[in-house]
Design a protein that fits this description.
685 residues; alpha/beta; four-stranded parallel β-sheet
Length: 685
């Protein structure tokens, strides 16, 4: 097996800069210089993106930046002992021992197990003391290889503890609840699954041991996971989830009191998590892992304990929009196809044709520009299916906003409130208000403590009934009329926009579409556009023009990143970005703004402003030339639904070129000054 660490990958008592970015960049360069990665920049980009998600500093003056990267060719461990400690986010202060773990995208299990074992060794004080006392690179390598070669102790493999410790005796399942010692189980998992997963597991086991509690851990990491024995779970008094990703097989723990926190807290505060789990075990009102059936607990609170109300609101709105989009995209494309085959006047004939005719009884009255009787019939069918699908826009938006707040019990009240908003003509704004009302009312009702025999009825009968009545009643009696007035006024204002006002609107929509690339601001602009499609007619084409400006501007960021990274200036982009650039051509052409996210995540201060500039240019040109789109999605592939398709293309090309040239200029001249405290490591590709 290839050696994970060599003396060339160790630096002792060096100043590598003042920030995690400086240290990671330097160590990525050293890995590449030793022929273990194809390029330093791509490895740095992947490692720093991982660092940006969750800080890798752990107690004891240690940091373990790590990642999987397509740039890595050999599983590698680089180590630095810093003369000037750097803050990697640990609560007890900056780190002086840095272990940089670089794994290939498809690393084999044996290497991943070794890397995981090393991460676990770093929480042992005698091991870290020896690392600080070592005087040569060779001593460091010897210490690390010794840690990797040791057989794991029982405490180091909590998920595979001995049968005597892990398997409960015949009466264990009841003994824990009849005054015997407490039993806990835990699951640890992080996005990469190399370091934090296993360090959190060992920290929790050690903390539990100190207070005389039996704790068994299932590590859901990259080197494989051995599920906890069902008997161990059944015997447990509470469960700890120290995770940054979804727990696999969560239903196994249903009904158990639960403590849920990020995986890093399992490393930083394992003793507090154990104490919280013990307290939850004795608290009949403690939060529990929900049942995944009719008895699903309605009082489930926000996953993150300290989540701000603004974050909860944003999450709910994004949930509603994300579930709404399939109805809109599918329905809008079907309507566009209906227009193509049946002509733009098919709206006046569709209801009659689909009711009175069939494929064997083709209509004799239909629009003049239809593709004959068959085209008129098929166009009417497609249009009607699309219109019915699009009719779910407001109810689906409201229903899934409520779902984002109150989980499943909120869906029915949300859909009903959304249907009321649609019936009253309150539109998109009414759907948002109705969904929020239904969600918070359902959530509040679900928090009421009721008798055990009534709990099963709460999520399926009582909450939907009461929340639907209250939320929809408020929409009918109080809120609906004012929202209708706002919606009508907004539509009239938009319909009257011409000249400079229309261009200004195009600039604003373009900026919004490119601000966060599929995030809440982008989704607000998109939802605003699709909500108006139903009001568009041949006499009122403003909603079609708004839809075209939004779609065109949303296509700019991925197309611009593809142009810049694969054609204009490849060397300014990492290997990973160049690969993403190839895919971004198709994503951009299909109107999937998220295709630019890998670029924005790696370099937001250059990519986002450049994208917004190009999006504003495209939005302005599209509105100025009266480009219209009868389809809400599809990009270039719905050319048949685009009015003035030539200017649609020209607008997108103009914005794409502006963004591509701007981002290249920023990468060339708006560059962070490098830290000159160490000799730069030469990189060979």
């Amino acid at each position: 097996m290839t050696q994970l660490i060599t003396t060339d990958l160790v630096e002792l008592d060096q100043n590598l800069g003042n920030s995690p970015e400086d240290v990671i960049r330097h160590l990525a360069g050293r890995v590449a210089a030793n022929g273990r990665a194809t390029e330093a920049e791509g490895l740095f980009t992947d490692a720093f993106a991982r660092e940006s998600k969750t800080a890798t500093g752990v107690p004891g003056g240690i940091a373990i930046p790590h990642c999987r990267s397509t740039a890595v060719t050999v599983p590698t461990l680089a180590m630095a002992r810093l003369s000037q400690p750097v803050n990697f986010g640990a609560k007890d202060g900056p780190a002086d021992l840095i272990f940089f773990i670089a794994a290939p995208e498809g690393a084999d299990q044996e290497h991943l197990k070794l890397l995981s074992k090393l991460a676990r060794s770093l929480i042992k004080k005698d091991f870290t003391a020896a690392l600080r006392a070592a005087s040569t690179q060779a001593e460091i390598v010897e210490l690390v290889e010794g840690a990797l070669a040791d057989k794991p102790a029982a405490a180091a493999e909590p998920a595979m503890a001995t049968a005597a410790a892990a398997a409960p005796s015949a009466g264990a399942a009841t003994g824990a609840r009849s005054g015997g010692p407490k039993r806990l189980v835990a699951v640890t998992a992080c996005p990469t699954g190399i370091a934090h997963t296993y360090m959190a597991a060992d920290s929790l086991v050690a903390a539990a041991k100190e207070v005389g509690v039996d704790l068994q851990v299932e590590t859901q990491g990259s080197s494989g996971a051995k599920p906890l024995d069902p008997a161990v779970i059944a015997a447990a008094d509470a469960v700890i989830f120290a995770v940054d990703v979804d727990v696999r097989g969560k239903e196994r723990f249903a009904g158990k009191p639960v403590i849920n926190a990020p995986v890093k807290r399992g490393i930083d505060e394992p003793d507090k998590m154990v104490q919280e789990a013990l307290a939850a075990a004795d608290n009949p009102n403690a939060r529990r892992v929900p049942h995944f059936g009719a008895e699903e607990q309605a009082e489930a609170e926000a996953t993150e304990k300290g989540e701000h109300i603004g974050q909860k609101l944003k999450k709910a709105l994004l949930t509603g929009v994300s579930y709404m989009i399939p109805f809109v995209a599918g329905g809008g494309l079907l309507i566009a196809l209906g227009f193509l085959m049946g002509g733009y006047l098919i709206t006046q004939f569709a209801d009659t044709i689909v009711v009175e005719n069939s494929i064997f009884n083709l209509p004799t009255e239909y629009p003049e520009n239809a593709w004959g009787p068959l085209g008129a019939y098929l166009g009417a069918v497609l249009f009607k299916i699309g219109a019915l699908s699009l009719g779910f826009l407001v109810p689906a938006l409201a229903g899934y906003i409520a779902y984002g707040i109150a989980d499943r019990p909120g869906i029915a009240p949300g859909f009903v409130a959304g249907a009321v908003a649609g019936f009253m003509g309150a539109g998109f704004l009414g759907g948002i208000v109705g969904g929020l009302l239904a969600g918070y009312i359902a959530h509040s009702i679900g928090k009421i403590q009721v008798a055990r025999w009534l709990r099963g009825l709460m999520p399926v009968v009582i909450i939907p009934l009461v929340a639907s009545l209250v939320a929809s009643g408020l929409m009918f009696l109080i809120l609906g009329a004012p929202i209708v007035g706002i919606t009508v006024g907004l539509n009239n204002w938009l319909s009257g926009l011409t000249g400079a006002s229309a261009i200004a609107l195009g600039v604003i929509l373009g900026l919004m579409m490119c601000f966060d690339l599929g995030g809440p601001v982008n989704k607000v602009a998109y939802s605003f556009a699709v909500a108006g499609l139903g009001a568009a007619t041949l006499d009122n084409q403003a909603p079609w023009q708004i839809m075209a400006a939004v779609m065109a501007a949303g296509m700019v960021p991925p197309l611009a990143m593809a142009l810049a990274s694969t054609v204009l200036d490849k060397k300014r982009f990492s290997l990973a970005e160049r690969e993403n650039g190839k895919a971004a051509w198709l994503l951009g052409a299909s109107f999937i703004s998220e295709g630019a996210i890998p670029f924005a995540a790696a370099d937001p201060l250059r990519v986002i402003p450049a994208s917004m500039l190009g999006g504003a240019v495209t939005g302005a040109l599209s509105m100025a030339t009266a480009v219209g789109s009868k389809a809400p999605h599809g990009g270039f592939f719905v050319f048949f639904a685009i009015d003035n398709f030539l200017m649609f293309v020209v607008s997108i090309l103009a914005g794409t070129i502006v963004t591509a040239l701007t981002v290249i200029a920023l990468k060339r001249w708006a560059v962070r000054k490098s830290v000159d405290t160490v000799e730069p490591v030469p990189v060979t590709v």
